[in-house]
Amino acid sequence: MGDIVNLNHYRKRRERRLAKQHKSERSARFDRLKAERDSTRHDAEHRRRDLDGKRIERTPGDEPA
Questions:
Q1: Where are the domains of the chain?
Q2: CA distance linking residue 35 with residue 41, whole number of Å
Q3: How many whole angstroms separate alpha carbon 29 and alpha carbon 49?
Q4: Residue 58 gets which letter from DSSP?
Q5: If pLDDT is split at 50, 70 and 90, which confidence band does 65 have?
Q6: pLDDT tens, 2-13?
């Protein structure tokens, strides 16, 4: 006959492991210095403006090449 196990222990252990994993993911995403956040925001804005400047505006009468 097998050992009696308490499923609550396994459930709580799993929840703790998932919470720890979630915490590490969030800290990697949000625990940054203000300068790092500003730099990332500035880079994204710069890339967006660069792409917008290269955009070709077409009118309904234009035919694609």
A1: 7-52
A2: 10
A3: 24
A4: -
A5: low
A6: 788 899 999 999
